[in-house]
Amino acid sequence: MVGLAACSAPAPEAPAPVTMTPTVDPSRGAPPAPDVPTVWPLTGVEVDEVPERPAVAVKVENTATARPQSGLDQADVVWETIVEFEVSRLVAVFHSQVPQEVGPIRSVRPMDPLIVAPLNGLIAYSGGQPGILAEVQSSGVQSLSHDEGTGGMFRVSGRSAPHNVYGSVETFMAAADAEHAASPEEQFAFARSAEKASAVVDGSAATTLSLRLSAQASPSWAWDGATGTWQRSEGTVASLASGGDRLSAVNVVAITAPHPNSPYGAQGGAAVPTYDLVGEGPAVVATGGSTVEGRWTKEAIDAPLQLVDADGDPLLLAPGNTWVELVPEGKGSLTVG
């Protein structure tokens, strides 16, 4: 007897996938491109086109003998620092405006590379100690020194040495080599308008900023609603540009940082101080008649100093110029009124 093998029925075929072709209403079209305006990188002010030119930082004297200085009213950013003998000196950064002259120009200090390295531009100064010069030259910026015969620096007849070295920012910009000729990257975060700046949106009303940076430097700022700016004074004396205009700022930023002595000495054995600016610390931003507290952070010498709130989000400045007050930790103070 022959056995019969059982046969199973074939499995049903899986249904073929159905491809759906979405239909798009032709009247809707593609989403609009985001409206991102072109702005000057150091001020956030709108401009049709940013010219390809470098930022130039200039070391400017700030003693009574040096005032009124030239060019400060056209700087995008001014940094105020304390050097030896508790004297204030300024680092004025130019990019969107090019003053006819700037000065008096003085020598570099060890905190200057920390300030200017993120710009990848040029720094102009009268001279400096060999060790400090080496730090400047190794920071990645292009160095322009009066002592080395840099073009564009000259002595004026109306002031006595060493308070009479001035310079041409236009000539400095033209001296940029291929590695330093590009426009700088944005250094601070800017709102689209003054009304959207962080201090205006989230801050508290303020009319005065009184700083004590040292026994020799007590700048103050008063809010002027008519011009929409903070107006500067040296103590109680109004600060003026050489042309007679009041020095003012759309944003005033006070950062508190350690202010240790550097390895370098000055006349009579006095120590030359510097700032520890790689790290973080407290910050106060004043814009639009208001102030807001936050933090500053800086990851490396060549990284921009950033301003953030308690959640780590950027503090937005208003479009316009900025003065940065470097308050020595444990020695300086800021009083908001």
UniProtKB/TrEMBL annotation:
Gene3D superfamilies: YerB-like (3.50.90.10). Residues 1-36 are annotated as: Disordered. Pfam families: DUF3048, DUF3048_C. InterPro entries: DUF3048_C, DUF3048_N, YerB-like_sf. Residues 42-180, 211-324 form the DUF3048 domain. Residues 1-26 have a biased composition (Low complexity). This is DUF3048 domain-containing protein. It comes from Actinotalea soli. The lineage of its organism: Bacteria, Bacillati, Actinomycetota, Actinomycetes, Micrococcales.
